Amino acid sequence: MEQEVRFKLHKVKKNWVTIGVTALSMVTVAGGTLLEDQQVQADEQNAANQSGDSSQDLLREASATTNDTATTVAPTISADANTASVNIPVADATNTTTAATDRAAAPTTTAATVDTNSGQAAPSTNVQATAADTSATPTDTNNATATATTDRAATTDTANTEARTRSRRDLAETREANTNTSTGIQWINGKQYYVNSDGSVRKNFVFEQDGKSYYFDAETGALATKSQDEFSTEPIKAAVDFSSGNQLYKNDNKSLDQLDTFITADAWYRPKSILKDGKTWTASTEADKRPLLMVWWPDKSTQVNYLNYMQNQGLGAGSFSTNSSQESLNLAAKAVQTKIEERIAREGNTNWLRTSIDQFIKTQPGWNSSTENSSYDHLQGGQLLFNNSKGDTGNRTSYANSDYRLLNRTPTNQSGTRKYFKDNSIGGLEFLLANDIDNSNPAVQAEQLNWLHFMMNIGSIMANDPTANFDGLRVDALDNVDADLLQIASDYFKAAYGVDKSEANAIKHLSYLEAWSANDPYYNKDTKGAQLPIDNALRNALTNLLMRDKNTRMQLGDMTAFMNSSLNPRGANDKNGERMANYIFTRAHDTEAQTIIQRIIRDRINPNLFGYNFTRDEIKKAFEIYNEDIDKAHKTYASYNLPSVYALMLTNKDSVTRVYYGDLYREDGHYMAKKTPYFDAVDTLLRARIKYVAGGQDMEVKKVGNDGLLTSVRYGKGANNSTDWGTSETRTQGMGVILTNNYDFRLGSNETVTMNMGRAHRNQLYRPLLLTTKDGLATYLNDSDVPSNLLKRTDGNGNLTFNANDIFGVENVQVSGYLGVWVPVGAKANQDARTQPSNRANSDGQVYKSSAALDSQVMYEAFSNFQAFADDQPELYMNRVLAKNTDLLKAWGVTSVGLPPQYVSSKDGTFLDSTIDNGYAFDDRYDMALSQNNKYGSLEDLLNVLRALHKDGIQAIADWVPDQIYNLPGKEVVNATRVNGYGYHQQGYQIVDQAYVANTRTDGTDYQGKYGGAFLDELKAKYPSIFNRVQISNGKQLPTNEKITKWSAKYFNGTNILGRGINYVLRDDKTNQYFNTSDNGQLLPTPLRDTGAITSTQVFQRRGQDVYFLRDNQVIKNEFVQDGNGNWYYFGADGKMTKGIQTINSKDYYFFDNGIQLRNALRRASNGYTYYYGLDGAMIKNAFVDFDDKHQQVRAFTTQGTMVVGNLHWSGHHFYFDRETGIQAKDRIVRTDDGKLHYYAAQTGDMGRNVFATDSRTGKRYYFDADGNTVTGSRVIDGKTYYFNQDGSVGTAYSNRADSIIFENGKARYITPAGEIGRSIFVYNPATKAWNYFDKEGNRVTGRQYIDGHLYYFKEDGSQAKGEIIEENGIKYYYEPESGILASGRYLQVGDDQWMYFKHDGSLAIGQVRADHGYLKYFDKNGIQVKGQTIIEDGHTYYYDADSGALVTSSFAEIAPNQWAYFNTEGQALKGKWTINGSEYYFDQNGIQYKGKAVKVGSRYKYYDENDGQPVINRFAQIEPNVWAYFGADGYAVTGEQVINGQHLYFDQSGRQVKGAYVTVNGQRRYYDANTGEYVPER
Prior knowledge:
This protein is α+β, with helices and mostly antiparallel strands and 1579 residues long. Helix content is 15%, strand content 25%. The strands form 29 sheets. Strands 23, 24, 25, 27, 28, 29, 31 and 32 form an 8-stranded antiparallel beta sheet that branches. A 7-stranded parallel beta sheet has the order 20-19-35-34-33-22-21. A 6-stranded antiparallel beta sheet has the order 36-18-39-17-37-38, with no helix packed on it. β69 (1407-1410) and β70 (1416-1419) form a beta hairpin. α6 packs across α8 (484-497), α13 crosses α14 (616-630) and α15 packs parallel to α16 (679-692). The longest helix is centred in the N-terminal third of the chain and has 22 residues, at 326-347. It is elongated and about 185 Å long.
């Protein structure tokens, strides 16, 4: 049947986890622990030999309904989630065997070796049931000759083995009493035993059959009669000790340790006399105190335990059991007392005795956590609620009474009526840690205000220096305190600092909440709180999508959570909607930090770790593992992708980022001593954020096949959208982030993706700030750091384009996926994109609103829980080191620093905080390094770091921890009830209205006494509005007339369990009343009473068939009575001794025919069901019971008390209980009733899921899937492929084909030498004489593949291309001959002086390409490099060097024999006239330099020298055949009549010299010689 279960969010210091509505409770029975109050499904609860119709009896008994198959009766769940009781129900059991005497075949159960931690949670069973049903062989009934019996025969392992062999032989040879099988009741050596199938016998066990009851005793397991009287009819004298010397000297505080008129188990007293030297009774002195437990014990079993304990201490008189006579015990107690006195005389003190007695007390269930129901429902094992005095305490604890203790008044539920419903909880646990402060008490609320004022003004108060005050506040554990405190803190900040008056005031006192509930931000907004809430939805998205390991990380399609899972959605349609101010982080001093260390300790160091109570040594060992893990690409414990997380957080709009110290520096070393691998990336992001992060934001997830890429862009001031043109500031601001969490991400060879930086950044050069590489993450803080080949330019729309060479998934230490961060080139070094807060008056009183100024803030949690102690090196104190490094914080743009709690730590040691001294565990809240240095330094160190921060313009945030105070030095007896985390008692919790000793008192001599309430009158005078407010939870105003200078229980809701047990406050063993030392109602332990006389005579009396018990001749009624042998009886309302099954005070008991009560024993009833009766004889119901205190013999019992066998489904867990013994399967592989194999985890017993385990019997290894079932066939597990046989075992299918390539279902697979499917492996294929590669799925790959950071190519038959040119999509690529890796950035010689070049993307170069060393080279259409040739492109002529092939630029080159050209800076041949290096040259239309030629320039000629090509001057040159010209000083050919070298010559208008012709000059006809051209007169 379907069960209805409500769920709550419970906090684990202080993360939210979803668990069942009520936590486990534990009940101690016979020293054992019972767990209850969880809804479960139990397949069966009956014994394996249930009769055929017993299921009908069971159904009638349980009022259950049935289905056709075995199902669970669904319990009814209360509508109130806080008080719901979730039970182990009785279920239909129709599938058991049909005869009560038959034995069901025991399931196959074998020990298992587990490869990995299954991670299963299970009920905690901390306490054992003493001797109930301890199965053993019956060897203690036989001595070596098998002729005599002893009560306690000691046997060696060999003897045990031999005896077991004998017993099996005897079983085979003797006749069984009731069955023909070898189990059940058997005759062995003349006695009958109940024998299990493994040959062991049951002890202290009742078996009913055919209307008869058989009891197998606790000592030997032999059948014993319980029909004969075992009591004596002789008068029993009341238990008075042997001498009046042990009587109390005087009933006062000096003579008797007492607490609030109560006496506790650790009490010492002054007797009238002491047995000096163990010989002579001597009058005592004030120094002669002795432990009460030397002369008095609450019951016989405790006396027995005391005597046996002292025997082990060398002070005893033998070993005893509860079967020993009272007389023998009393005689032994005298002997122990004598030996104690002898040793006191020898050693001269009782210090050793105090230690010994204290240790003994801790061993007794009634005086330790065994009876406190210790469990995982609390960080310290459990919690107690203080009640107003009632019940057995009467009015004796009225001093601890309170009119308040209004629980669970969180922001969700402040008035007692739930107001917010964003999540399903009412907040965190009311009881979180230690002494839980009652923050609903008005006097406490006033004291919290007083303390807050002291803390914020520590500099003014302690040093008269306001520069050493705090500025802001972190409210710790918000969801665990009364929400009135938030109002009080906000009222204080508004009144004292005016944070509601302007944005500038608010930001100057930036404060924040540790607020995990989704309801908290809305409460904070509605109440106009003066602190920022967490954007926890975004924090979860960042954590789950980026930080988790690759097997559990969310799939890529969910990266939209970065946009949508947030208080402020950032999608295109939401980004301009209503914004809510908040802050964001992913890791902190506790979150994702101490949880990781806990996991390491539990996995690798101490598998029995309880909660967070680990030692410093364990922490040290854990950090050795953790620090190693951080430095790995594939991490087991450390978080992944922290640079990516910070890239998003630090660039996000509408959120303030809180940076965690432990992401920059190693968390366990000395402060700031050693950096993490992420330091450079986070450092670069922080510094760059100042310059670039501003303006609007757009986020987008781009789909690339089945993968996704997230882009997040900030545009810079003046641009809110991608289409905005921006302002002059915008151009050099803005930042773009592009990332994926897929380490296998690949773009196709022709695929590209774009990131739109905005229209304001069109046609602009961009550079990387962070860039993923194969081996890490490159950082480029400055423009000058970036190689030119990494620069990119946006297009006309502002798009940056990326291809497969730019973006590719990797897994390295910093990045698991891909991360790139881009910024514009050209920003000035001092550019600051941040916005200053406004002083404009706040109109609506809302303290924090999302704004550019608020976005400009960066908070820094400046500490780790685990940073090293300074010890004797005060220069290493955190506060000193930080004070010297505030300039670094300023360079990072940090505006507020969260300091750790500065309180001197408690040495309580019950929780991590008080082990590592981090300041969260304290017992004097005003002791901020006043009495001694704390972990972080002295008071002066604190004041100095505050001064240093302020000097650099950085605010300091104090940590306010108002929820708890650790164990205080003074004890107090209170009326207490064991409750769950919300303060509700659960069925099964034993402590109900009991007197309990709590550590809740101070005496006023501490700093609480000095400063408590000291500022209230001043504050009321200065800020009356705070005191005028009526608080919501209690309806009261803050008082000033009750100043708390001394803490006491009346100011607390309760405390954690302290390991003192249910009976630590002692009761009289006759009246069951608490001892009372007051004059009015005095009641003292019998040996201490003044008379020391016998107070009564008691006697058992038989009257016919009935037995009565008389005390002072009065018949006792309705009372349990113990005889001199330790047996218990009950006398009913008629005074008669009861027998059989009885219900007394709503509890079920069982009494033998002789009236003796069954205690600490299993009883298999005639209906086939097995029941367990606990230490007090009451039937245990609805509980898990640990029978050996090692969690290895756990049984479960239903709401009807029937023992569970078979499957049990409990609150999402699956357990199995042996059908014969009922013991829970742990670290076992079991073939259960469904015929399937399942593995049950060693620690928890939960069904193993997603885990390998090895059957130790067969050696076979199995894998159990998410449903806990074995698998068959081929499976990929953790990225590795396995093959499972039909029986589920690993790997044998391919054992005969190891190290070979096979075909399966048409697919090629490689089988490793171990017989497993090879995955992610290169394999040589002898058939093709080539290498193949099999991917992580075990499939042989073809085509291009990205493997371990390199590209390879595999042909259709899987053969790897090596030394080959492969054409893909029309583009040619070359794969290296040795490695097969895609060639990139290299030449390939393909002929004599013929070369090809493969670009950095691996493609064959065609045309002009910038190749090695950045030189431009040219490759023809076939990819052959051009050398010593000209290439004409776009009308330009280019020449590529004959040797290097490089494009010739800014140089002359001989492009053909005796043909020269000049190529400009672009490599283009010049044409026409050019001046080069100050000289003139001329080039023809093909770029060929004129040499020895004349060229007509305009209407005149110039002649260029045949050698240097420069224009000739003052010389003749032949410009055409037989045509000469003379070139003057300007280089041009002269014209007209000229006298040159004394000759009269003539040149026509183009400069040609006239020879053998007439020319008219100035009207005169002249002739010039045909040979010399000289003027010939008169011709």
